[in-house]
Amino acid sequence: MSDHSIQAYCRDANKLASFAELKLEGKGPLELSLEDLESYIQWLFEFQFDERSQARMISGIKAFYKFLLLEDVITYDPTELLEGPKLGQYIPDVLGIEEIELILQHIDLSDSKGHRDRAIIETLYACGLRVSELTELLMSHVYPELGIVKVIGKGNKERLVPIGEQALQQIHFYKIGFRNRLPIVKGHEDYLFLNRFGKKLSRISVFTTVKECVAKAGIQKVISPHTFRHSFATHLVEGGANLRAVQEMLGHESINTTEIYTHLDNDYLRETILNFHPANRKQEQVDHATYGSVSMN
Predict the structure, then answer these.
(1) Which of 21, 161, 208, 285 stands 20 to 30 A from 200 (CA)?
(2) In terms of pTM, does the model score above 0.90?
């Protein structure tokens, strides 16, 4: 798993330990029963953690006890019958193509880091990268002549992702207009995206950059770097891309994760059916022949 997933699981285990210390007379993890764990879930609910946070914390606890079982520390897993909140399908927010263009247009290229910020947005959207994949992207892993980048994803798994000419052009402008002028810190020479001190960008810096760019464009949605990944996938699927190909480009281990991007809003579905379904096309011809120029609802 990624470092961030591991850290999140550790935090979840620590939350359970804190609860046991405060509410269960200091019981250790080997002493906790299913009833104790159910009281922990109730405690999470009372502290107003939302359902998705609860589900993630429970997943972390289940992983912890699975580890103890695999290591023969315990012989019975008390989380086996532990149930979390029922979650509906999560449909991520996406940006429209026009909104992405608006964000790009409002980046000030006269600013010293303007070309870097535009290259970041272009790369996030063109390749559908996670923010950690962007910050870890190496110059030696960008192949302009092939139009691909090599990405190191979760679990250090490598994948090749196509990158368009527009994003490559912005990366080139960033390199000659900003990056080449930096006093690059030793050990950071191969990282593509650097801050003004010559070190690789942090995740927080990318979040801040995206937030600033979105604000300048006057877009009111709550946007994060991951929104560009969602938009990349959604636009591909809406454009007719093969779901397996999208799965490969996103680096999803399971096709089930990618299937979330098959969601299409009702207006899009209605327009598609009305325009392309043969029965609707025949009905339109009948209506026109019968009623002439009278419009039909």
Answers:
(1) 161
(2) no
Please give the average pLDDT of every successive group of 10 residues along the chain, which has 297 residues.
78 87 85 89 77 81 89 89 67 86 94 93 96 96 96 89 95 94 95 96 95 94 92 89 89 81 54 63 49 44
Asked if 20 and 119 sit in the same domain, the reply is no
Q: Is 235 a catalytic residue?
A: no
Name the residue with tokens 């011809």: 285
Taking CA atoms, 169 is separated from 173, 176, 177, 209, 261, in Å, by: 6, 11, 12, 19, 28
Let me know if 130 is a catalytic residue.
Answer: yes
Using alpha carbons only, what angle is made at residue 130 by residues 128 and 133, rounded to the nearest 5 degrees? Answer: 105
Q: Which of 154, 175, 211, 216 is catalytic?
A: 154
179 noted as active-site residue: no
Using an 8 Å Cβ cutoff, are 60 and 17 in contact?
no
Sheet bearing 158-162, strands edge to edge: 142-143, 148-152, 158-162
Distance CA 139, CA 244 (A): 28
- 288 and 210 share a domain? no
Active site residue 188: no
- Please name the helix (run of DSSP H) or strand (run of DSSP E) that holds residue 62, with its range, or none: helix 51-70
Residue-number span of the structural domain to which 125 is assigned: 97-260
Residue 154 annotated among the catalytic residues of the structure: yes
